[in-house]
Amino acid sequence: MILPILKARFADALQKLANNIDPYLEMIRPSQDPKFGDYQANMAMPLAKKLGKPPREIAQQIAQQLDISGICEPPEIAGPGFINLRLSNEFLQTLIKKAIDDEDRLGIPDIDSVKRKTYLVDYSGPNVAKPMHVGHIRSTVIGNALARLLKFQGHHVITDNHLGDWGTQFGMIVFGYKNYLDAQAYKNNPVEELSRLYRLVRQKMDEPHDEVAAIVLQETAKLHAGDPENLKIWQEVLPHSQDEINRIYKRLQISFDHTLGESFYQPMLADVVEYLLKRNIAVETEGAVGIFFEEKKSQPKGEGKSTDRPEGEGRNADRPEGEGRNAVPMLIRKSDGAFLYGTTDLATVKYRLDTFTPDAVLYVVDFRQSQHFEHLFKAVRLQGIDHVELTHVKFGTVLGEDGKPFKTRSGDTVGLNGLLDEAERRAYEIVRENDRDGTPEPELRETARRIGIGAIIYADLSQNRESDYVFSYDKMLAMTGNTAAYMQYAFARVRSIFTKGNIDATQLRLSAVVCRLPSADCHPAERALALELLKFGEAIDLSLRDYRPNVLTSYLFELSNRYSVFFEQCPVLKAENDEVRTGRLLLCDLTARTLQKGLELLGIETVERM
Questions:
Q1: 283 and 182 belong to one structural domain
Q2: For residue 438, is it within any domain?
Q3: What is the pLDDT of residues 30-47, one digit of tens each?
């Protein structure tokens, strides 16, 4: 990793110019144009304004104090005070050799032990009473990618799937089970029948002048109070729903350290309310208990803001209006004694802090819950808990071609299982049509699975998570552009060089004593590819700075483009001599390994040929 080394050298040079040098170190960035060098430092302009001196004079002062011997050529001052840096070929050779020799981490060091943290990542969190749908894909894949990236960086990561297995949705299922169950249909396909019951009861609850909604709330209250009949139904239907959800996680190659649903915390809720009442954090008003907050003046970084964006899809997206969102104050017990989602989340925070002692808790939940998490975090801070980072990693909505939340033609929410099936089917048509080698059918199916599932995941992660995006099978399965298929193809194309040349990449790495790249006489495309490969660790760091996996997807896309230019301009197997050939093969191998590791960190599998 180059940037941390440069920042350390600049830190020494800036000590006499500013008390807080961190903002200025962030102004060291890769150059946008190679003619200005490899990296550029732009801190002279803001420092000059602060110190009342000409920017070029400040830039010269920094350059004079800067010790970059063995790393860069002498710095150049350009324009009003830009400091341009070109890395030495010897330095790049050392880093490239280190990356080549590092089987697992490609030369990227573990995070410093002082900075190592325990992260708890809360993601996916579907309501168990009905099948997962397209709205659950974002939380699931974003959370999984962040957990993988944090682990790779060297942090201790705990993943928790906070299932919605206890709320009003189960009151709906209990009511439907008692009154509308088709016993034979349930025996044949329990999940499908439970889905039908959920839709039927939902429809009846929405009908005007219907009493079903009130009855559902009564059934929910009875379940929460331990009614034997309702508990028996809940215990009967819950495993079927969980099995269906787990099948989807298996398809996505996703697992969790813990799956602690809302029901797990039910016995703790009364104590949470009493504790908050005794501390005068919560107050009782007209029989209900709530937490009142002062007028909002400022907001800690990373603690969720309210938004006026249209509704999206996400964890517990089918919560009843007024429960857990848009509620002022934050209610934690109703006048009838019922608890709310906020109560459960407060109990969850307490359990997690007591059990896992995390330094940070990330809630990967859609933006509609912004106010809920803003209130939750404030309620935690009011208890004097300020040593843990609490961040709502919010995201936007999956849209259809019409710009509205993605639905089926009949207007139903698109099921996630069906979504994955269709992606695999379309991927299979593509790989079968392009198969020229008579690939065995099982291999075609496995390739289609990896491409189809990878397309769904990458299409989501390549977006700025807070933006809505339009779902399109054609775009996400395209072999050009910033897609998983393009990345997988780039990997397969690199690997094909070794197959064609009958070269063992592992043996090549072991036998190559010195990598000639980059060198004074190497092709510009070789040097550009080598430099891009060394930015992998920086891309991971930037992805985690604000929990945005799309930074990594952008890096992988740029790396693939750099490789394409290299491939077109630099013969590998037919290079002019053995030394050049070996150096280029090593670059190819490192490119393949970097693409594979980058996709792996996003939860995407590669394929050996396409």
A1: no
A2: no
A3: 998 888 999 999 999 999
Mean pLDDT of the chain: 91
**Residue carrying the six token digits 């060098």:** 37
Mean pLDDT score, 96-107 = 94
My answer on whether 49 and 130 are in the same domain is no
Between CA 332 and CA 279 the distance in angstroms is 14
Kindly report, residue by residue over 294-344, the tens digit of the pLDDT: 755 444 444 443 333 323 333 454 443 334 334 478 999 999 888 999 999
Are 479 and 586 in a shared domain? yes
CA dist 423 and 451 (Å) reads 8
**Whole-number Cα distances in Å, 498 to 464, 508, 567, 581, 608:** 36, 10, 14, 12, 11
Nearest to 164, CA basis, from 275, 320, 289, 356: 320
Q: Establish if 444 belongs to a structural domain.
A: no
Distances (CA, A) of 274 to 225, 268, 281, 289: 18, 10, 10, 10
Which segments of 334-394 are extended strands (E)?
A: 360-363, 389-392
Contact 126, 366 (CB under 8 A): no
Q: How far apart are CA 130 and CA 128, in angstroms?
A: 6
Q: Is 563 in a helix, a strand, or coil?
A: helix
DSSP reduced 3-state for 292 = coil
Same domain, 206 and 313: no
Q: Where are the alpha helices (DSSP H) in 154-279?
A: 168-180, 183-188, 190-206, 212-224, 228-251, 262-265, 269-278
Count of other CB atoms within 10 angstroms of residue 123: 27
State the residue range of the domain holding 52.
3-87
Check residue 517 and give its pLDDT: 66
- Amino acid at site 30: P
Residues 434-471 as b/e (b if ≥16 CB within 10 A, e otherwise) read eeeeeeeeeeebebbbbbbbbbbbbbbbbbebeebbeb
Closest alpha carbon to 133 in 395, 414, 340:
414
Q: Give domain status of residue 608, yes or no.
A: no
pTM above 0.85, yes or no: yes
Residue 578 is classified by DSSP as H
Poorest-confidence range of 87-91, 139-143, 157-161?
87-91
Q: Are residues 243 and 333 in the same domain?
A: no
